Structure prediction request, 87 residues.
Amino acid sequence: MQEREVIFTRNLLKEVMKTVRKYTTVKQRASVWTYHFGRGSWEAQSTGKDAVKPNYWSGEASSAYEARANFWTKWLDKKSIKEEVRE
Prediction:
């Protein structure tokens, strides 16, 4: 993976998490984990007693950072929470 891609996906996750932190607890955020199937296929899940609902995302991503960002973006969409864009 190219260094630029890692930097981009880390920053993407960082921006998504600014909104997520307002609506979740530390335990809920810690309950999310990722799994790499290979060839760009990832899944992210929230498990345990502190799991958030919906608690599953699966799809194409370039890294675990992007998989987590996709998981939380889907979660925000299902909860009808708009991400705040900071300029």
User: Anything to note?
Assistant: The first helix runs from residue 3 to 20. Strands lie at 32-38, 41-46, 56-60. Helices lie at 3-20, 26-30, 64-78.
